[in-house]
Design a protein that fits this description.
The chain is 80% helix and 0% strand. The protein is mainly α.
Length: 110
């Protein structure tokens, strides 16, 4: 379940990063262009995804540990997106493969 929570946080931060005026994302996919045109929709969707992931982390690990884990994952994901996005290393195909592998490992280990 942690893989899904991290994927939700990643998607929410990517939506918020997409709205930044300093972001020079050339060759944006069609969904990213639509989200830029609807800023209120993009912000509300990303906030809902962040709240869902925070709620799930609190549900799994408790209040203090859930909030702390959420903050740590948000900082890590944010740093990863800001670092790798200008180089165009983040693609939908890579994210789906990474999510699938982490979900398989999570099921096998836990």
């Amino acid at each position: 379940m942690y893989s899904t929570v991290i994927a939700l946080i990643f998607l929410a931060f990517l939506l918020l990063y997409n709205l930044s005026k300093k972001n020079k994302w050339e060759g944006r996919p069609e969904w990213a262009k639509k989200m830029v045109s609807g800023k209120l929709l993009s912000r509300s969707v990303s906030m809902v995804l962040l709240l869902i992931s925070l709620f799930l982390l609190i549900l799994f690990t408790g209040t203090g540990a859930g909030i702390f884990t959420f903050i740590v994952v948000l900082m890590a994901v944010g740093s990863l997106i800001v670092l790798l996005s200008p180089f165009r290393y983040i693609t939908a195909r890579h994210l789906i493969i990474l999510y699938g592998l982490s979900l398989i490992f999570e099921i096998i280990i836990f």
